Amino acid sequence: MNILEVAGLKTYFFTRRGTVLAVDDVSFDLRKGEVLCLVGESGSGKTVSALSILGLVDSPGRIIGGEVMLDGEDLRQYTPRQLRHIRGKRIAMIFQDPKESLNPVLTIGEQIMEPMKVHLNLSDKGAKEKTLLLLERVGIPKERLFSYPHELSGGMNQRVMIAMALACDPEILIADEPTSALDVTTQALFLKVLMDLKKERGMSMIFITHDLGIVAEIADRVVVLYAGRVMEKASVWQIFENPRHPYTIGLLNSLPDIVKKKKLIPIAGQIPGLINPPSGCVFHTRCRFAQDICYRVVPPEEEVEDGHFSACLFRGSADIIKASQGERI
Amino acid sequence: MPFPRFCGYNKSITGGEDLSEKLLEIRKLKKYYPVQTGFLSRHSDIIKAVDCISLDINEGETVGLVGESGCGKTTLGKVIIRLEEPAEGEVLFKGMNILSLKGGEMKKYRREVQMIFQDPSASLDPRMTVGNSIGEALLIHGMEDERKRMKRVEELLNEVGLEAGDYSRYPHEFSGGQKQRIGIARALALRPKLIIADEPVSALDISVQAQILNLLTELKEEYKMSYLFIAHNMAVIRYLCDRVAVMKAGKIVEEGEVEEIFEKPKHPYTKALLEAAPVLNPHVRRL
Q: Using a CB-CB distance cutoff of 8 angstroms, which residues of chain A are in contact with residue B175?
């Protein structure tokens, strides 16, 4: 069952230099209880997609089309007041840098209690009790209730962010690169806490990352984004074992593996600018399988196997299938 | 261009018969920083960023230095090129202690050891053209003829995968990956023997990261250099390095051949680092 459906989302930024097509016709669903990973490099539109879901896109950006359906209701029709009742209560978000998103002059206790007082009308005492339970659950000693963010390490602050996000038992948690500022050992610990809580509460999660290692570790399904468009959508198994888009194949071929030394085959060229994105398929400028037709036609997403969509005109070609199986590993 | 020779150049050490010749030897190096902590900075404390480290780099070898943030790996790199002065210890380059070098000798040493930084945007002067940034080192080290300098810079631009026409453009016109290529060209300008690369790919997107890793590998062969490759990403270390040193809180806890460290890590910290790193295979999930 889908708890969230994003369909045909278009978020553009109207800057003086031109219109930036940050998210251009992106669709995906989030099923109940699953972890959906949005994967992409910088400028792929993964963060803007998440912010669009919550209606947090600031000027000069604007959502100019598409639907965001939460349990059958279109969040885009909501007033700002109605949206405030959704944010933090039904959909919560964790950001990349906890230092930037925590308030430096409030104790972490006050910050975790705030959403409970706003959304759940809890008293100070009730909120405090719940906060202590949450802190314990994320592995922060309860004396830390009165600490300020600068007194805690990056990993601890990020766990405070989870506690805050979970304060009102949201149905959906959106995590935007929550571990990219953390060291590997701290990251592993953080992911463990996050995944345990997700299972315990049956939450659904959108996890944004550029790290395919984390995707392999936690995802149920994956959406691969590039230059504001969806390239491939599939289960985590399909993505790693049978990728059917040259961009996904390129990403997997350009990553060194910790288990075995392998040859790296990089993707040529640079990420395109989004003011004048390439015509036709946005990836054609860097694609080694590109043909004339790729310059003209925007490839539709088509199903290559059960639940596996690829936006490549040649998704079924022998070359691509060979590249996806042979050259890697 | 012939390599400059040092005053204290020792022919018997750098004869060139033995391939595993020691290029750099670090002996019991220490670098401490005083810090003020507590209310009104009443307490002073010492941070041991580099705490008695010994490490060798052979000619033509890539040595990885891996550890988490704050373990002192960048400080060690800076001491080697003398951007920081150590408290104790020795750094021998081709058998000569570089910590006692002065003036002209120091300048000669700087031609042989170069650094590539993590953030290419921060390490290029935004008001200098790419050509001037790369050519500056050539000028300082005596290539005064502008035509010759321009020719060498254009050659370098081609070698790192840019175009000769990029000579008169400014850093902001380039993407992150291209800026890192400029940083690499600048480091190569004087044909160094050793490059200290401090997290050169961690700020780059994955599709570009592989391009730079392959470029570094090719250039190493071409220029017959050694690398000290500082990184926190274990997979990148495995891809690029011959030997690896694992650093924790200012100390090297384990050192060895790459395959040995990855296949049979001995120190618990090395094991923890390897276990914590995500694996690109959904079959080996642990969460």
A: 270-271
